[in-house]
Specification:
The chain is α/β, with parallel strands linked by helices. The protein has two domains: 238 residues, FAD/NAD(P)-binding domain (3-Layer(bba) Sandwich); 164 residues, no CATH class. 32% of the residues lie in helices and 16% in strands. α15 packs parallel to α17. It is globular and about 70 Å long. Bound molecules: 3-acetylpyridine adenine dinucleotide. The site of 3-acetylpyridine adenine dinucleotide has 26 residues, from α6.
């Protein structure tokens, strides 16, 4: 039973609404955090920037946007009723189906009355005299709360290229993560796409079906692997529903929170025939099977990685008619799996179509964007629509865009100027009562998101319940705990090839030259992350000062 009146905010101020907890963001993490806190009897409210719930799946509505984690591992597991009621139509569902799911969840658990939409938080300031956060949105909406929980997403702060002339383009221009709600006509148009990460790869496949001419401006190619999507029929639904407990149990045990388990053998100890047979088998499986279900050392050992890369390159080459184009599409700067692997259905075949042209802007950089299109090496590619699939200021970007001021007015962005410093990837010293879901150094940033989000949310809710039971008002990570966690993250990162390659995983972004290369993720895997969090809680929240 609650010791205090959990429905009350920290103190009365007639001019500002007051809550126990203010959550920033109504995506996968924010919605579940709100539900969980309300179940515990706390007064909680969400400020959400968008005009609807769903976070990532609200914003990223470009043609082709689709899940590449299996739908049945990407859903919430906390409600049996929800699992029984909801049916996934495909193994990897489209953005619109996933968005309907989050809308359904918000309705089912009566969350809408507790969400302020269109409220983009601009600042949050800690008032030390009362141990309260004062939060303000861009439109002037304000709230006071004992706790602030950020659920702002790891890939939610889009970046645009710093290319001269960008504003001068007279056609239509869109970032994939800010795609309009109204349909965008691409049929019969001259379309250009800058960027070939997961968003670009999905968008390009759809666009190639309808565009009169599609020009892809590629800087770094990626190793894209087949998604192998399929509908889920009636029998499939029945089997799925019966298997949910087993699905979630297995996901909880794997490093990435997926169903794929890496093979305990080293690629180097197998014969070439054994390797080939294993890779062929994994290649025919859906999703990330080849990436995350590979030999245990392909993401740690360069020699093992080179062998896996050879296999993948062969598979890619087979699908492209023109050897010169194939050469451009095969990465040279990194090995397979050391950057996020985009999943696709017809991506490589697109380049065999007469209406598609690949422009290598690594070889010949973009000169400028002109009113009529994109100028590369003196050649102007005329376009009606220009799509920026140019990615995000990953993991820290959405937090940096909010002016967090902690103890003695210290800015979080400044504290993290040389890279984030956190404890458990959920707190930072000097910022009491601020909890970051899916924040830097958190297990969820290299994980099948909802699986790790559920762990984050439950852990945070338990911490707040513990504080309430004991009458604590303030929780803050100690400097020592933060230092050793940050070092632990760095040590884990040094053991994988993923952090030796340039990508958003390590904060490298061509459009953010000022962002320092740093360790942003927790690379120990979801089970170890959960174990560490549980250990801290079991020891009375070791590493925190509770007052
Ligand atoms: O972004 P990215 P994304 N000139 O950063 C290029 C998740 N996701 O939106 O690599 C020319 O991967 C840039 O080139 P380079 C997923 O985790 C999931 O595609 O810097 N090119 C790169 O090719 C993913 O990893 C799904 O050389 C420029 C691209 O733009 C993450 O989101 C779907 C440029 C950016 O790729 C991010 O993916 C989509 C410039 N100035 C995304 N600036 C699912 O299926 C940038 N680029 C669930």
């Amino acid at each position: 039973m609650p010791k205090s009146d959990r429905s009350a905010g920290p103190s009365d101020r007639p001019d500002v609404a007051s809550y126990h907890t203010l959550i920033i963001g109504a995506g996968i993490a924010g919605l579940y955090q709100l539900h969980r806190l309300r179940e515990f009897g706390f007064s909680a409210r969400i400020f959400e920037a968008g005009d609807g719930v769903g976070g990532t799946w609200y914003w990223n509505r470009y043609p082709g946007a689709r899940l590449d984690s299996e739908s049945y591992t990407f859903c919430y597991s906390f409600s049996q009723e929800l699992l029984d009621e909801w049916e996934w139509s495909e193994r990897f569902v489209s953005q619109s189906e996933l968005l309907s799911y989050y809308e359904y969840v918000a309705d089912k658990f009566d969350l809408h009355p507790h969400i302020d939409l269109g409220a983009r938080v601009s600042s949050a300031t800690f008032d030390e005299s009362e141990n309260v956060w004062e939060v303000e949105a861009e439109d002037g909406r304000r709230a006071r709360a004992r706790f602030v929980i950020t659920a702002v997403g790891a890939l939610s702060a889009p970046t645009l290229p710093r290319i001269e002339g960008r504003e001068s383009f007279e056609g239509e221009a869109y970032h994939t993560a800010r795609w309009p709600h109204e349909p965008v006509e691409l049929e019969g148009k001259r379309v250009g796409v800058i960027g070939t990460g997961s968003s670009g790869v999905q968008m390009i496949q759809e666009c190639a079906k309808v565009a009169k001419r599609l020009t892809v401006f590629q800087r770094t190619p990626n190793y894209c692997m087949p998604l192998r999507n399929a509908p889920i029929g009636e029998e499939g639904q029945r089997r799925l529903k019966a298997s949910y407990p087993e699905i979630f149990r297995r996901c909880r045990k794997t490093l990435g929170g997926f169903l794929y388990e890496s093979d305990p053998r080293s690629a180097l100890e197998c014969t070439p025939a054994e390797r080939e047979a294993y890779w062929e088998q994994q290649y025919t499986k859906p999703g990330f099977a080849l990436w995350l279900g590979n030999f245990q050392d392909i993401l740690a050992d360069e020699e093992a990685n080179a062998l896996a890369t050879e296999f993948v390159v062969r598979k890619i080459r087979e699908r492209i008619d023109d050897p010169e184009v194939a050469e451009k599409l095969i990465p040279k700067s990194h090995g397979f799996g050391t950057r996020r692997v985009p999943l696709e259905t017809s991506y490589y075949e697109v380049y065999n179509q007469g209406n598609v042209e690949l422009v290598d802007v690594l070889e010949t950089p973009i000169d400028r964007i002109t009113p009529r299109g994109v100028l590369v090496g003196g050649v102007e590619y005329e376009l009606d629509v220009l799509v920026y699939a140019t990615g995000f200021d990953a993991i820290t970007g959405a937090l940096d865009r909010i002016d967090f001021r902690g103890v003695r007015g210290r800015k979080l962005k400044e504290k993290w100027g040389d890279g984030p410093k956190t404890y458990l990837g959920m707190t930072s010293a000097g910022f009491p009562n601020l909890l970051t879901l899916v924040g830097p150094h958190n297990g969820s940033t290299f994980c099948n998101m909802p699986r790790c989000i559920e762990q984050n949310v439950a852990w945070v809710a338990d911490l707040l319940a513990h504080m309430d039971d004991k009458g604590y008002e303030r929780v803050e990570a100690t400097e020592d705990a933060e230092k050793s966690w940050t070092e632990h993250c760095q040590e884990l990162a040094s053991m994988t090839l993923l952090t030796k390659t340039d990508s958003w995983f390590v904060g490298v972004n061509v459009n953010l030259p000022e962002k320092k290369r740093t360790v942003l993720q927790y690379m120990g895997g979801a089970p170890l992350f959960e174990e560490k969090c549980n250990e801290v809680a079991a020891k009375g929240y070791e590493g925190f000062t509770l007052e």
